[in-house]
Amino acid sequence: MWREYLHKNIKIREIILIIIIIAVSLFYIYYGLKNDDKYDNKVVLYNKGDKKVYSLDKNQVIDIGTHKIIIKNSRVRIRDAVCPLKICEKQGWVKDGVIVCVPEKVAVEIYNTDKKKEFDVIVK
Amino acid sequence: MGKVNLKKLLYISLLVAGAVLLNSMDYLITSPFPFVKIGFSHIVSLVVLYLFGRKELIFVLLFKVFLVGLIWGKLFTPVFFISLTGNLAAGMFLIVAYRYFSLIFLSIGGSFFNNFGQSLLVYFLLIPQKKILTIFGIMFLIGIVSGFFVALAAKLLLNKLEKYKYFDFRMDDYDI
Q1: How far apart are the C-alpha atoms of B176 and B57, rounded to whole Å?
Q2: Is there a domain that residue A123 lies in?
């Protein structure tokens, strides 16, 4: 009974299935890799569900009670954290990436698109 | 509780045990790579679908997911729910499509719908990060290859099992 399903030739709907799978996977890869230029050179701060956007170019200190977020020279760090392990403090200066504080439900996403700032110093 | 076809129950339990063993083997082999699963246990899913039917396929899939969750201590964790979603999505595709596709394309489509259901669950409920979708896109492409080899293995197993005449069960004498 099952044997007749195996020996049929490839049908059009089977080729369509493969094409749909490849199209969906290419769309997923493209959509995941696409850069969101909405947050170019911005710092996004999530604080217990609230979301605020700050500029990365302006030097400032943001005090949210549990942490102090310092933005200086296109770099970001956290100081004066109240959480016990202080992992967010030990991460130090971050140029591009994410700082997370799990116990206080705080996350800082840094979108640094200026490629020149990847290096600290260039020695010639 | 009506009549139980004991022979059929015995074979389905053996196939569930085989599925659990193959799934555990999958965990062991692919544990260095966090996102890769070959999907050996779907050899058993395809065999059950072709030899027994749709009701038995869902039975085997649910039992496999629960038993693997119990054995590896992952019952009711996010991993368990991801596994459950993937298996049910693949099972639904197999049930709907097995009259229209041959075994190889059925297996490839099942692997795609397994990953697709998981991608919807993970993206909308667990990790709403866009970069996770890139990983799922690569997983769909690898799934075409692994689905093809799973179908070949299932075909070999079906060729062996066809010799035995114990498998001529009908759907309607199974009321437990």
Answers
A1: 16
A2: no
Cα–Cα distance, B100 to A11 (Å, whole number) = 9
- The domain of A21 spans 3-33
Contacts of A33 in chain B (CB under 8 A): 131, 134
Q: What is the mean pLDDT of each run of 10 residues along chain A (124 residues)?
A: 55 90 94 78 85 86 86 86 84 85 85 65 72
Nearest partner of B60 among B35, B30, B26, B94, judged by Cα: B94
Number of domains in chain A: 2
Q: Global pTM?
A: 0.73
Q: Specify whether domain B6-171 bears CATH 3.40.50.150.
A: no
Rounded to a whole number, what is the distance in Å from the CA of B130 to chain A's nearest CA?
5
Residue A124 within any structural domain of the chain: no
pLDDT single digits (tens) B39-49: 899 999 998 98
Residues of chain B with C-beta less than 8 angstroms from the C-beta of A11: 102
State ipTM: 0.83
Domain residue ranges of chain B, discontinuous segments joined by +? 6-171
